[in-house]
User: What shape does this take?
Amino acid sequence: MIIIFLDIDGVLNSDCFFLKRVRNMKNLRMFNTDLINENDVKVIDSLCEIDLDNLDILVDITNITDSKVVITSSLKNNPWFNGVCKHLINYGLPIVGSTKDNAYNRGFGIKEYIKNNNIENYVVLDDEVFGDYDEEILSHLIRTKAYDSGLDVNDREKILKILGMERKYEYKKIK
Assistant: This one.
C-alpha cells in the first residue's frame, strides 16, 4: 500500500489563502452539506479553511498513485475532526486513518504506522520539520510553503518522483 502522510494546515491551505479568502462559506458548496450537523460549527469552519485548489492537487495525486491518506495533523485530536474527514472522503480523498501521536512527535507516529501496516512506499506532506524526523522520514518529506501556497503543482512532481510514479503520470497526462 502507498501512503500519503498528511498534515493539513500549511498543506491544504496557506497564509496567502487566508489573506485572500472571505469567510462566506464559498468553499462549503463543494461538499455534501447533507452530511453536516448544523450544531457543529467547528466542522464548517474547518471545511472553509481548506483551499480547494490544494485539495484537488492531492486528490489527483491519490488517483494517479492509487495511494491512501493517513492524517498526521494535530487537528486529528479534536473531537469534531471526524466530521471534517467525512467531508474530505466524500470529496474524493481516500483517508484510511491517522497516526497515534501528539503534535510534537509526528515522526514516531509515522514510524509506528509504517511498522504496523503493509506499507510499500510513502510520502510525508508537512510544512514543518519535527525533531523526531529521522533521515528515512526526511528522505520522504515534501515540505510545503505554508505562507505562499501550501501544496502546489511543483510539489506534485516531487511527490510522484518519491513514489516512483513520474512515468505513470506522463502516460496518464498524454492519454
Summary: Residues 2-174 form one domain. The first strand starts at residue 2 and ends at 6. The helical segments are 15-20, 41-48, 52-65, 81-91, 106-116, 135-138, 153-162, 166-174.
